[in-house]
Design goal:
Shape: globular
Number of strands: 12
Helix content: 40-55%
Strand content: 5-15%
Order of helices and strands: EHEEEHHHEEHHEEHHEEEEHHHHH
Structural class: alpha+beta
Distance between the termini: 49 Å
Radius of gyration: 21 Å
Length: about 375
């Protein structure tokens, strides 16, 4: 562990000043593994206590979506606004974290935050990511606990944040569709050594647009990246609190099936088909017990959102490899491709299956 100095390799003076104002002057720090975003994380330690410094540079990404912006205005602002990602708005993390904790869930407590600096000092929930502990604990137990979190959020959605600095928006069809376009914009050129024609892209977008018109209206808080690299196992806590939640700043109000897809069609680890099927059944049983649950609508949402999400991830991983010079993401493509092939075989996905079979046959076999 290395003591923080003015060295740019660890932090800068604004970080030191922020920590000092938060009562953590003189803390030691060491870097934590980051993710695919522009954020960085340091574990800071002082007097036997640990916390995490989140560094989210305000100017590192394009603007988030203004609440009043229409689709055309969102597209002009860039991908973050179109897909309704939080982008550089640290207030999103703070507001959603507060809402999750108020609902009885284990999001990290926020000790201090400065959105202008892009800094937040938050509770350290440890290192027991599902992806790290899954070989040493009961896999069914931890996945059941994660599924219980989603069922609880469906039964009693956390309060939808609405503050002067951040308003949670809907995961609307424009956002969902923009994400699917990443497949033809980035994955297609990677596979075909050239871009898709305008006509083919138009056909693809029209197919997904038609499918998305049949999705259930937004009805639950959706965290959007609910998977084994973003969930921490906290066995000393009780019930749904046993699952620690991180990386939720892009959350929106949408169709609840999305996060169950994220959990069970994980891009980074295999979830056995029998376990995935058991978790879907577990979720549906809990939703039925809570009342007002339409199983057919949920099954359709799950099928559509699985195809939507995996189309998006194929595009994102291709973009990370090509644009951002992170070739390690290419190693994850085969698993996502396998998910997408299976998604295409589900009822209701026939138009998309025909398109992919005709134009990307290796992705439909």
């Amino acid at each position: 562990m290395k003591r923080m100095t003015n060295s740019k390799s660890m932090t800068d003076q604004s970080h030191l000043d922020f920590l000092s104002a938060a009562g953590w002057a003189g803390a030691d720090a060491r870097p934590l593994a980051g993710d695919a975003s522009t954020r960085r994380y340091l574990r800071v330690s002082r007097n036997g206590n640990d916390a995490v410094l989140m560094i989210a540079p305000p100017g590192a990404e394009s603007a988030p979506c203004p609440p009043e912006a229409n689709v055309a205005e969102r597209r002009q602002l860039g991908y973050n606004a179109t897909a309704r990602l939080a982008g550089p708005n640290l207030n999103a993390f703070v507001a959603i974290g507060n809402a999750l904790r108020a609902a009885g869930l284990s999001a990290p407590e926020i000790y201090a935050a400065d959105a202008k600096l892009g800094l937040a000092l938050i509770e350290d929930l440890g290192d027991s990511l599902f992806a790290r502990v899954v070989d040493t604990v009961d896999e069914t137990e931890i996945y059941s606990a994660a599924t219980d979190v989603l069922a609880a959020m469906r039964a009693q959605p956390p309060a939808r944040p609405a503050t002067p600095d951040y308003t949670m928006l809907d995961y609307d069809n424009a956002a969902l569709l923009a994400e699917t376009e990443l497949l033809v914009d980035w994955y297609w050129p990677l596979m075909k050594d050239g871009p898709a024609s305008d006509d083919l892209k138009t056909e693809y977008v029209e197919i997904f647009s038609g499918l998305l018109k049949k999705i259930s209206p937004p009805h639950s808080l959706v965290l959007r990246d609910f998977h084994a690299e973003n969930l921490l196992w906290l066995p000393d806590r009780k019930d749904v609190k046993r699952v620690g939640l991180i990386d939720f700043q892009d959350g929106l109000f949408g169709a609840a099936a999305y996060d169950l897809v994220s959990l069970l069609e994980d891009a980074r680890r295999d979830v056995a088909p029998d376990l995935a099927a058991a978790m879907v059944d577990h979720y549906c049983e809990a939703a039925r017990n809570a009342g007002d649950f339409d199983h057919d609508a949920f099954s359709h949402d799950y099928a559509l959102l699985a195809a939507q999400r995996n189309a998006k991830i194929l595009g994102i991983f291709a973009r990370l490899a090509k644009r951002d010079n992170k070739p390690r993401y290419l190693d994850l493509l085969p698993r996502v491709e396998a998910h997408f092939r299976n998604d295409l075989k589900r009822p209701g996905m026939e138009p998309l299956h025909r398109f992919v079979t005709a134009h990307l046959p290796e992705l439909a076999s």
